[in-house]
Write a structure and sequence with these properties.
This protein is of the alpha+beta class. About 25% of the residues lie in helices and about 30% in strands. The strands form 2 sheets. The chain has a 6-stranded antiparallel β-sheet with strand order 1-2-3-9-4-7, with no helix packed on it. Strands 6-5-8 form a 3-stranded antiparallel β-sheet, with no helix packed on it. α2 packs across α4 (about 45-55). It starts with a helix and ends in a 10-residue tail after the last strand.
Amino acid sequence: MDIGSTIRSIRKRKNITIAQICDATGLSQGFMSQVETNKTSPSISTLENIALALKVPLAYLLLKKEDRMGIVRKNERRITTSGAENLKVEHLSSTKNVRMRLVEFPPGASTGDEPHAHEGEEVHLVIKGRIYAEQGEDAAEFGEGDSFSWNACTPHVVRNIGDDTAIVLISIYTENESERDLI
């Protein structure tokens, strides 16, 4: 873990000196310097005091860099295609287990000719257009603003039943960190 660099970064961003941290925590400047250069590992109690002095949650200091906020700017989104109909998929953001996608369905397009199944759970929000969704014996039509969800292990299909391109926001939760195509 690189807790020291995190502490230093927060301290500098907030324009707090090492002396101010030491005044607030009772720690020596030498010790704080060693913490910030990762030459010593402070106890949880000491980290809690440092977090209080920095006015950040203790948990934030313990997060690995890859577990912190991820940012994807609109012009930096990865765009792929999915399925036989090459649906346009914009990869919005993701964590280890959750992926958010914006999927464009041209008129008549679907996630496949036959219902398919895969691991995980999905939540859908129709942003634009009209969608028909079917899972097992359940089926319904959805318009703009409507949403639906399901466990993806049961075969399902989503189809655009409107005359214009439909856009659906899909969040997919899986137990593994796989980036494979699940749409």
